[in-house]
Design goal:
- The chain is α/β, with parallel strands linked by helices.
- It has 2 domains: 7-70, Helicase, Ruva Protein, domain 3, CATH 1.10.8; 80-289, 3-Layer(aba) Sandwich (Rossmann fold).
- Helix content is 36%, strand content 18%.
- It is built from 10 helices and 9 strands.
- The chain has helices at 7-20, 26-37, 55-69, 74-78, 102-115, 131-139, 155-167, 212-215, 230-239, 258-267; strands at 80-83, 86-89, 121-125, 147-152, 173-177, 192-197, 243-252, 271-277, 283-289.
- The strands form 2 sheets. A 7-stranded mixed beta sheet has the order 5-4-3-6-7-9-8, with helices on both faces. The protein has a two-stranded antiparallel ribbon with strand order 1-2.
- Strand 4, helix 7 and strand 5 form a beta-alpha-beta unit.
- The longest helix is centred in the N-terminal third of the chain and has 15 residues, at 55-69.
- The radius of gyration is 21 Å and the shape is elongated.
- It binds glutamine.
- Glutamine binds at residues 95, 97, 101, 126-128, 131-132, 198-200, 221.
Length: 293
């Protein structure tokens, strides 16, 4: 007698298998991947535990599980990731949005509501799949005073961002390929009330010891130079020329980097420098402002 794989028996096999190969959320991974194969919501699996799987479904699931075993992030296998309650397309051309980056979005919204409630230019440097700037533009949609610009050095990333804009029906964001500010000329109509960035911040020497999942993500989105702080220095030094008086600069920072990034902001003349903690009590967001005129 041949045994038939059901939804439940397959999950009960796949979860310990993925755990053995290092996944920290094996059951969830298995459920998400099986839901993709069966084209249903994850929770619907619970109503179909006894459903036998067809050979083609089994083969697709097995392929995904093998990729996951090698460390490919679930988000790449699913082709999407939720961020700020919106669904973003992701491919290996972009960093997978992380939940802690939502603190940056929160800080940006508070800043804009408090200081530029009638609108201003907002720039996101290293936009990747566009999650930060699209979440902001979505929040302020219908408020005509804002203009939104997402910059990335990699056209392949911007192609994903533009697709997300289309998918989310957010037309207000412009996209530009540029190495940080290189393609912008200060005073040529480029002045911003807010610049945000979640720049690469991993110390170069630590890149090799990152978990396999992170190795699947673009190096250019992760490697922050010899001390991990290179992009903070470059951005803080140049953003001054592009910010209006009272304009803000808000960064996501890596673990233990907040104090150093605050010093970088201070030495570049920013004021009202402060930080915000994430749910893991790590100081995750650092911000400063240009002086008012
Ligand atoms: N802005 C994107 C994010 O925060 C990508 C950041 C990056 O590539 N370093 O997820």
């Amino acid at each position: 007698m041949t045994s038939t794989w059901t939804v439940l028996s397959l999950l009960n096999w796949a979860a310990p298998y993925l755990e053995k190969y290092g996944s920290t959320s094996p059951r969830l991974d298995a459920e998400l991947l099986l839901a993709k194969v069966l084209a249903c919501q994850r929770l619907e699996l619970y109503l179909r535990f006894d459903k036998p799987l067809a050979a083609a479904e089994l083969a697709s699931f097995k392929k995904l599980i093998l990729e996951r075993r090698q460390g490919v992030p679930v988000a790449y296998l699913l082709g999407e990731k939720e961020f700020w309650s919106l669904t973003f397309k992701v491919t290996p051309a972009v960093l997978v949005p992380r939940p802690e980056t939502e603190h940056l979005v929160e800080a940006a919204i508070s800043f804009l509501e408090e200081k530029f409630s009638t609108g201003c230019g907002v720039l996101d440097l290293g936009t990747g799949c566009g999650n930060i700037i699209l979440s902001l533009a979505h929040h302020f949609s219908g408020e005509a005073g804002f203009s939104w610009l997402g910059i990335d050095s990699w056209p392949a990333a911007l192609a994903v961002a533009a697709e997300n804009a289309c998918q989310l029906e957010i037309e207000a964001v412009s996209w530009l390929t540029s190495d940080l500010f290189a393609a912008l000329e200060p005073s040529k109509n480029f002045s911003f009330g807010l610049v945000v960035a979640n720049p690469p911040y991993i110390v170069s020497a630590e890149m090799a010891s990152l978990p396999p999942e992170v190795h699947c993500e673009p190096v250019a989105a992760l490697d922050g130079g010899p001390d991990g702080l290179e992009f903070y220095r470059r951005i803080a030094a140049t953003a001054r020329d592009f910010l209006v008086p009272g304009g803000g600069l808000i960064f996501e920072v890596g673990d233990e980097q907040a104090e150093e990034v605050k010093k970088i902001l201070a030495s570049n003349g920013y004021s009202a420098i402060s930080g915000l903690f994430d749910l893991a009590r790590c100081e995750r967001v650092v911000m400063g402002r240009m002086k008012d005129e």
